[in-house]
């Protein structure tokens, strides 16, 4: 690997703006966003509702098109379709209801061209990893919200992306399940070390997981501030919250968020 490759950021937003057009009205959702994600870095984004967090991820995923600016993935323009190597986990992730857990996780393997003979072992491994060994033959309707979320996670991991885009992935879960599955994801991530762009409204979750927390302004969204999280890894997702470093950072980020009024009440 050359030095240039070693230091090339995984993802770069350069002066990215986006305006949505609805009923002939233009709505500026992002305004000059500059942000970099290093290879294998975990960056969490927090910001008031409606500030453009989802929009930011959607552009990278090829689900929205920026009006101006540049987005580079591994140094190259992302283009207009979902780039290979990018995997998404969204808040309301839908599993295919007519397929079993096994089949839901198998799909990305098939799409990736993993030989049929190798698929069952890989599926078992992934289900074990997310704590669902023994549930392979269940259908989504037979699972709890937390379990469905785990299947969605296993499915994204089956795709084995280099860059995970996660939009409030644990949003709909109850607080207890959220902490448990968050902790599990953190452990898995610390083992595989992929790049993650993680949107959450939970400041504690952001600090406990990320290498860096990015705060956005109320819409139109810009980067307001960035905070390195100097907590050693591996981290205990719960215990880490009792450290001084965590508490100070939490206070600082809360303070910054409080000075940003919600952009609107709509959550898209
Ligand atoms: N498809 C769309 N068409 C028009 N406006 C949209 C669309 N998606 C999002 N918006 C608007 O853009 C702004 C940013 O939305 P979003 O990225 O979903 O914010 P966040 O995820 O931070 O809550 C909001 O004001 C929202 O109403
Ligand atoms: Mg959102």
Report on this model:
- The protein is built from eight helices and ten strands.
- By secondary structure, the protein is α/β, with parallel strands linked by helices.
- The protein folds into two domains: 6-85 and 161-258, Rossmann fold (3-Layer(aba) Sandwich); 95-159, no CATH class.
- A hairpin with a 2-residue loop joins strand 4 (68-73) and strand 5 (76-77).
- Helix 3 (101-112) runs parallel beside helix 5 and helix 7 (203-209) packs across helix 8 (244-258).
- The longest helix is centred in the C-terminal third of the chain and has 18 residues, at 175-192.
- It is globular.
- Magnesium ion is lined by residues 53-54, 167, 267.
Please describe the topology of this protein.
Blueprint: H1 3-7, E1 11-22, E2 25-37, E3 42-46, H2 53-61, E4 68-73, E5 76-77, E6 86-90, H3 101-112, H4 119-129, H5 145-159, E7 163-167, H6 175-192, E8 195-199, H7 203-209, E9 212-216, E10 223-228, H8 244-258
Parallel strand pairs: 3-8, 3-9, 6-7, 7-8
Antiparallel strand pairs: 1-2, 1-4, 4-5, 9-10
Helix pairs in contact: 3-4, 3-5, 4-5, 7-8
The structure holds adenosine-5'-diphosphate (ADP) and magnesium ion.
Kindly provide the name of the CATH class of the largest domain: Alpha Beta
Order of helices and strands: HEEEHEEEHHHEHEHEEH
The rounded distance between the terminal residues' Cα atoms is 41 Å
Q: What do we call the CATH homologous superfamily of the largest domain?
A: P-loop containing nucleotide triphosphate hydrolases
Q: If you average the pLDDT, what whole number results? A: 90
Classify the secondary structure makeup into a structural class.
Answer: alpha/beta
Tally of individual domains: 2
The amount of helix comes to 25-40%
> Ligands in the structure?
adenosine-5'-diphosphate, magnesium ion
Describe the strand arrangement of the main beta sheet, using strand numbers.
6-7-8-3-9-10
